[in-house]
Amino acid sequence: MRDILPEDAARIALIEDAFRDVLIRYSYEEIRLPIVEPKNLFDRGLGESTDAVAKEMYSFLDRDNSELALRPEGTASCARAIINHSMAHEDKPRLWYAGPMFRHERPQAGRHRQFQQVGAEAFGYSGPAIDFELVHVVTEVFERLGLLDSVTLLINNIGDAAARSQFRDALVEYLNPFSDDLDTDSKQRLISNPLRILDSKNETTRCILKEAPRLKDFVSEDSTKRFETVLEMLDAAQISHEIADQLVRGFDYYTDTVFEWVTDRIGAQDAICAGGRYDGLIELLGGRPTSGIGFAAGIDRIALLHSATQEELEYRSTDVYLIALGEEQRSYLSEIANRIRQGTNLRVREHTEPGRMGAKMRWADKSGAIWAVIAGESEESERNVSIKWLRSDREQMRVPLCGMLEVLEAA
User: Fold this and answer.
1) What residues have CB less than 8 Å from 3, skipping those under 6 apart?
2) Beta strand spans in 211-347 (E)
3) Strand pairing category for 371-375 and 348-350
4) Can you give the pTM of this predicted structure?
């Protein structure tokens, strides 16, 4: 876990704002979910054999000995909220959320034990149009951030639970004779979660998988037709994509359409956003049968990609630095500050410490501000201000207080 310092926080806020703005325009509503949930929510929802639950979840006993966990993802929490508040009985909620998630992973570039996500979930929609819509949402965000040329959309159809169960049995039967040659993680997954072996990056394991049974051969005709409709919609919208037969996603709740955006620009952690359908999750958690689909975006990884591919982010905390020549002008300085804050979106900082003018100007320059607005005895008596440009050669000028905003906004 790490501190996110102001300049990095500014980039993360830029990315979160892009997701927020696009999702709101698509009529998704914000939900704020608890960071701590009952542990069995994730045991049931994600699957006890998944890495997020079996290896990575932060769980602990409360004072009453109930088992709690820091949330490792947001979909199960969102589904739990849908059930608790009967939100899907009379409506088809479309929700989005943002915040920290927690997994006990090995920290490296793009992977932290506390990481930021933005997610969106839609409940009660069974047709393929919603699959397309969520992919379109993320595509629009990446286009807005200038990242579309740096990512690849992978998409697959994993069918329903019955199809995956049949495929699982066939995959295990095929892999058992090769068990000694599999990498360590895949050997463990052969017993606990065989489908995750398809995600292996180990070259030997990938070689063995080349002749393995294919999941698409087990998927029903209805599911295949539905997926073909999603692909047709992507083609019509000219959204570039690749069908990835080995894409299965890591949680047990996924069904039918799954998707993932990857990049080769940030090292080993190449997945930056992923999601898919989970039509059985609400029922699994005790609710009425309700279809669902969603995505989660890894904001930390997207920030790494944005930093690697875009122009340096222009960052400053202050636009206008206010300086009083004497302590007697402190009240007048506060009046100036209030006028700027109430009349513009400029960021204003008042110099609050005593000292010589030279030292105050050095602080103004160090702040990164565009202007220093200075008020002395004559400025106060004449109801005007002196404006000094800190990032250009323009000459200092004195303007009436009533005309100050016009000068700052024109610049």
Assistant:
1) none
2) 242-243, 255-262, 271-277, 292-298, 320-324
3) unpaired
4) 0.88
